[in-house]
Amino acid sequence: MKRKVIIDCDPGIDDSLALMLALSMEELEVAGITVVCGNSPVEMGVSNARKILSFMGRLDVPVFAGAETPLKREYVNALDTHGSDGLGESFLPEIPGWERTLSATGFMAETIKAGPCSVIALGPLTNLAVLYREDPLAFSRIEEIVSMGGCFRSHGNCSPVAEYNYWADPDGAALVYEAMENLGKTISMVGLDVTRKIVLTPDLLEYMKRLDPHMGEFVAKITKFYFDFHWQQEHLIGCVINDPLAVAYFADRSLCSGIMAYTQVERSGLSMGQTVVDSMGFYRKPANALVLTETHPLAFFRLFFSRLLGIGEPHLELLPALIKEEGKCGAFLGCLPTTWQEVEA
Ligand code: BDR
Ligand code: CA
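^ thats the input. predicted complex w/ beta-D-ribofuranose below
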């Protein structure tokens, strides 16, 4: 049976790959795409979502514009990571025909109240926080929330302790985690602990191009900037594709595992955006999060390739040779040392 989902996102290169995956999965019915300010400003995010829908032949999926600024702090985009067009400077042609209708939260409320629907959040949690404030009943009826964001044992990507989505709107993230606590529910936190292990390498991209030149070239086009960014920033040959793991995990629970823990997001100061995960139960509070700590890159890429390329997993016989799951194994295998010091050691 298909599960209905709203994809709340800030496309964004890896958001775009996640959208492509979601649209390729028969397990999911993408009811709509809601856009939040994050990697790119909302208008650009809407335009990028439509470019992806057009490429996927799915312009029937509606797109709604959401929050243009975080709840409290100033907006900081991530165009340095995603390119000046938010889509890796691919400068794909604009897709005309979008009209502003319902707001993102208006669409969410209407859809959630109409029947079971989950939200896969791939950007800052501002839209979900606004929904909680505007319509707590609708928020409480969300079947499940899976959020790409935060980090537990891994270091951050915006500060030593904070990941971009929660750092960009710490108040929004904190409110959503508090709301889950109040409702006695849990949010699935697909954080950097697991997403850092999902590295699209040149080998994998080349394999994709060989298997399906149309899809492979498109992915290459929108990820080239991201590859360059990762080389400059992290000395990584490849790019970490965070957001598709949240979509994949939503459909297949065997891809990640983790711990249930009470989790709070820091709103300000040195550790702004940090996810404080009470794994030892110091606060004696019930868990409001399933914090994912382990993943299986090979299983993820099997699913990613098979769905995106529309081929059966048995036909992906080269994948195991291109992905090594354990240990430090060098640039082309997707598990790199993380600092220059380690490289030199
Ligand atoms: C997250 O931030 C964005 O740059 C990515 O799209 C992802 O959602 C990773 O920190
Ligand atoms: Ca994102």
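Residues 327-341 have pLDDT under 50 and may be disordered.
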